[in-house]
């Protein structure tokens, strides 16, 4: 499954122009949200018929990092729908791959587990949490296609760094024993090269796998590529809403 991008070679001129305009507006909108949350300025609002200056930190105290991205996704979808009309809109953004109702980003650069997670969060997602056998099957096959050699593995969102043997996903949920895809004799917390052991999950087998078992524990400090995940952009309202 590869990235789905609008082809410009056989695309109508007005669609190509709309694509450029949408990309520019979308990029600008995202950075507006970022500046809006971080710049030291005051917002002028009217409360109870009186004009008051309210510090943006107080005004946005309930608008957390996740809600900012939800708001951006909604804005992105509105812009897309109005610019493209009957043309298909990207559900993920450039560089991401759409599968099911999620978007995946397979990094090219290598970083530690913690650094990789930070990079995913900066992109509006997190290290991937595998919720089903179908998702594991998709990722297992996708990694076979893009791995360059057997040890070219990818970080995913599983760690037992808080308590040895208690594997948690990045959202804090406990690993479901019905959805475990550890490789043979894994996890082993091997301390041969790293005295602190192996507390982070990496995945990927270049050759054949037995029943999709392609997970391995590794030292969190080793540099690997990574898999980021975020929800697809849809026009449907989500359960989460932005409230101030």
UniProtKB/TrEMBL annotation:
Molecular function terms, GO-annotated: carbohydrate binding
Domain C-type lectin: 99-229
Transmembrane segments: 21-45
Family matches, as PROSITE patterns: C_TYPE_LECTIN_2 (PS50041)
InterPro entries named in the record: C-type_lectin-like, C-type_lectin-like/link_sf, C-type_lectin/snaclec_domain, CD209-like_CTLD, CTDL_fold
Protein name: C-type lectin domain-containing protein
Keyword Transmembrane assigned: yes
Keyword terms of this UniProt record: Lectin, Membrane, Transmembrane, Transmembrane helix
A Pfam match: Lectin_C
Coiled coil spans: none
Top-level taxonomic group: Eukaryota
């Amino acid at each position: 499954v590869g990235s789905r991008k609008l082809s410009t070679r056989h695309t109508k001129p007005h669609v190509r122009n709309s694509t450029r305009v949408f990309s520019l507006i979308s990029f600008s909108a995202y950075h507006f949200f970022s500046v809006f949350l971080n710049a030291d300025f005051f917002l002028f609002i009217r409360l109870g018929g009186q004009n008051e200056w309210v510090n943006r930190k107080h005004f946005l105290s309930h608008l957390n990092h996740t809600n900012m991205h939800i708001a951006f996704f909604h804005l992105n979808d509105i812009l897309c729908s109005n610019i493209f009309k009957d043309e298909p809109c990207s559900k993920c953004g450039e560089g991401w791959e759409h599968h099911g109702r999620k978007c995946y980003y397979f990094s090219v650069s290598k970083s530690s587990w913690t650094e990789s997670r930070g990079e995913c969060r900066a992109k509006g997602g997190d290290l991937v949490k595998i919720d089903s056998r179908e998702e594991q099957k998709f990722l297992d096959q996708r990694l076979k296609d893009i791995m360059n050699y057997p040890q070219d593995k990818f970080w995913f969102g599983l760690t037992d760094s808080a308590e040895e043997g208690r594997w948690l996903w990045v959202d804090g949920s406990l690993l479901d024993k019905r959805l475990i895809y550890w490789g043979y004799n894994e996890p082993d917390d091997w301390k041969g090269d790293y005295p602190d052991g192996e507390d982070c999950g990496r995945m990927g087998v270049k050759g054949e796998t037995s029943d999709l078992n392609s997970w391995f524990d590794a030292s969190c400090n080793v540099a690997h590529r990574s898999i980021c995940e975020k929800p697809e952009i849809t026009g449907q309202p989500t359960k989460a809403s932005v409230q101030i």
